[in-house]
Protein: Saccharopine dehydrogenase NADP binding domain-containing protein
Amino acid sequence: MFTNNDWLLYGATGRTGTLIAEHAVALGHRPLLAGRDASRLRPLAQRLDLPWIETDVDELDRHLGDSRLVLLTAGPFASTSQPVLAACLRAGVHYLDIANEIDVVDRVLRTSTSTITAIPAVGFGTVATDGIASWVAAQVPGADRLELLAMPSTAGSSAGAQASTMLALAGGGRVLRDGALVRTGLGSSAHRMQTPLGTRTAVPVPTGDLVVSHRTTGIPNITAHTAMTLHPLVARTALPVLPTLAKAARHLPRNARPAPDGPTTYVAGYVWARATARDGRSAEGWLRTGEGYAYTAATAVATVEAVLATEPLGATTVTAAFGTEIAFGAGGEIVAAA
Structure:
């Protein structure tokens, strides 16, 4: 199958996939759109004047053609990542995804290959948090502790994102200690902190940022947080039941929360990182990213461009491969540092 398309976008009709396709076209790309629903693919492809194919992830091999890269945006990634990565390895095609589930990200980063580049988590907030994490870590040589916090701002939410969130919560809390993932109670060690948007409760969450920033910085002890308005005591009391609720919710229908119609003003998204050494040296910083889905579209396409322009890098992260340029160049701006 000859396609004359450098890369394939699988999951193009999802909220994030559509934004990535639109951003790619605006920059002159012509990806091959792929997904499981022809009734949704056809009008999108017609609107963007792009080729498209209907296929399941298990049948992707026979549709790769001369594509040099696959960007996977269809979740839940616990189901879609492994077959797509396997197809890429068989065909010698680069693999990217926008996953942020720990187990998925960890599996991709453990892939042994010298023939392709395999990079997980090429969207918000992992690229952003890893960028600011690398930036502060460079200021604290020998740092052994890294704290991360993401405050996303998104227009609407996708069903795929909701499914991935439920899967992550169902696994309970996790942190990185001495280079290994350790299970913790969800909501444990929740605490108040000052942010650019006021005082918030920082709640440890089990996200792919833990393994991504460990790979990039080598720091062995990492905790990733999200910001909530709950009081820390409420978070520590209520959140431990979420894994049970999340397991039940995985069996319920999911409805995407659509983006509002018309012009809307969004509060900017922010990410924060602090690196600390045993002797007390530390550095921290805030990165403002803008709206989360738009940031993901920018970082994903920028990563596609960077990967297609380089020789195979094996399994790696965006920042380990290309430095902080993509994280900061996709609209990220350092607004506070200490």
